[in-house]
Design a protein that fits this description.
The protein has 463 residues and is mostly helical. The protein has helices at 19-25, 28-31, 35-51, 57-76, 88-100, 113-149, 169-194, 213-220, 229-234, 237-263, 291-314, 328-352, 357-362, 370-378, 384-400, 410-414, 429-435, 444-458, and strands spanning 154-159, 162-168, 196-197, 224-225, 271-272, 354-355. It contains 18 helices and 6 strands. β3, α8 and β4 form a beta-alpha-beta unit.
């Protein structure tokens, strides 16, 4: 079955396009989101055409008036999107014809849909990156506030999910601050490649008009113009970069979500998530589930999938534009939406948490100070490997004797090294942490410095 439609792009065809093909090709169900960016780009392009005397000032005035009124229609919800017009570009152009007549046809002078959509996607990606950076910054503020509020809380640090050494909870949380700070840097770096203006590349070979690409770039806030017309219309590296940065951020968010899920379980009991960020069970009345954290963990895989999908689309494409590139949008929009919503919800969840300070401290057995005992011997000039071996045998002895290390007598300590003296009893959780005062360590002074530096770093993002 063929579908009849008004189209200015089917001049060479004798038949109307098949209705199934039409639906298959249509991108308006998702690329309508580009309407602001499309109109913004068209206004800058039309103004340049008038400045270069490619169209008249009067024609530009009509185009400007028409596009501005279309923008108002879409913003107010009065605009009727038509699926048979394929995409947002043709929907806007068709409406412009209805409003100002044949002058609308002059807007597309020196422009192809290929460089037009590349422009729209870069404008959207730039806006999305800036929003992600701001949201990440807000998220990091939540982490720093939590760290500062709980500066002296002691908890077990883990390796292999086994008790390793005591650390400050604030130190633990600041580790996530630094992870998400790197994410901000990745999006900032991504912006450098996003903010290149492709308009003026035409379909693939440039345009035979005296266009002023620098004017359009300046008007739209781009740092530079693209250097090769074929690359311009087929480049989606900036989307892959964004999705890659988003995948890393979601990985970090998933790791934090995993900790929240573990720590809020009865087995750990380190934290309690606020009621407003928890869900119940349909069957078990006692349940308080950290579903928001679980879903953030789950949505990470979906963002990974969008990245792999785009890499797969691009891997076999010859230059220049191919319709496969239409597949850049749904995954990109989904990644952006998923990342922003996950950050916002997890930020609120972190703010809702109550810390069980007593529980964090109580679960730590004295064995967690074993490394400190080895260091004690090292300070008495015992080679570390020898000290490590002596303390390992001491711990094994204590476990067999069902004793904590602080329950052993000095005589028992000296079975494993004659260098142990009565001051070994002075090794405590607090002293263990405060001893780790190397730059970046868990000592209170270092963590306070880390928090102060974090606040200083965040000031550059303040509006």
């Amino acid at each position: 079955m063929a579908i009849k439609k008004e189209s200015r792009l089917r001049g060479r065809f004798k038949q109307e396009i098949n209705s199934k093909v039409q639906r298959y090709l249509a991108s308006i169900p998702f690329d309508w989101r580009l309407y602001r960016h499309d109109i913004e780009g068209s206004l800058a392009h039309a103004e340049m055409l008038a400045r270069q005397k490619i169209i008249t000032r009067a024609e530009f005035g009509k185009i400007e008036s028409g596009l501005t009124s279309i923008l108002a229609e879409i913003d107010s919800g009065d605009f009727q999107f038509k699926h048979e017009l394929d995409d947002i570009h043709m929907n806007i152009e068709s409406r412009l014809f209805e409003k100002i007549g044949d002058t609308a046809g002059k807007l597309h002078t020196a422009r192809s849909r290929n460089d037009q959509v590349a422009l729209d996607m870069r404008l959207f990606a730039r806006e999305a990156s800036l929003q992600v950076i701001k949201t990440l910054q807000d998220f990091n503020m939540q982490l720093v506030d939590m760290a500062e509020k709980n500066i002296r809380v002691v908890m077990p640090g883990y390796t292999h999910l086994q008790h390793a050494q005591p650390v400050l909870f604030s130190h633990y949380i600041m580790a996530y601050f630094h992870m998400f700070s790197r994410d901000i840097q990745r999006f900032e770096d991504c912006l450098k490649r996003i903010n290149v203006m492709p308009l003026g590349s035409g379909a693939l070979a440039g345009v035979p008009y005296p266009v002023d690409r620098e004017f359009v770039a300046d008007k739209l806030g781009f740092d530079s113009v693209s250097a090769n017309s074929m690359d311009s219309v087929s480049d989606r590296d900036f989307i892959i970069e964004f999705e890659s940065a988003a995948a890393v951020t979601m990985m970090h968010l998933s790791r934090l979500a995993e900790e929240v899920i573990l720590w809020s379980s009865r087995e750990f009991g380190f934290i309690e998530v606020g009621d407003d960020y928890s869900t119940s069970s349909s069957m078990m009345p006692q349940k308080k589930n950290p579903d928001a954290a679980e879903l953030a963990r789950g949505k990470t895989g979906r963002v990974y999938g969008n990245l792999m999908g785009m890499l797969t689309v691009m891997k076999g494409l010859p230059h220049a534009y191919n319709r496969d590139l239409q597949e850049d949008k749904e995954g990109f929009f989904d990644t952006y939406d998923t990342l922003i919503s996950s950050l916002e919800v997890m930020s609120g969840l972190i703010g809702s948490i109550t810390i069980n300070k007593a529980r964090m401290k109580s679960v730590m057995q004295s064995y967690i100070l074993a490394t400190d005992l080895a260091d004690y011997l090292v300070h008495k000039h015992v080679p570390f490997r020898e000290a490590h071996s002596a303390v390992a045998r001491l711990v094994a002895y204590a476990v067999d004797a069902k004793k904590e290390l602080n329950e052993l007598s000095l005589a028992e300590y000296r079975k494993f090294s004659k260098l142990f003296d009565k001051d070994v009893a002075e090794i405590t959780l607090d002293k263990s942490m405060e001893a780790r005062s190397s730059q970046g360590g868990t000592a209170t002074q270092q963590v306070r410095h880390s928090i102060a530096e974090a606040r200083k770093q965040m000031k550059k993002y303040a509006i």
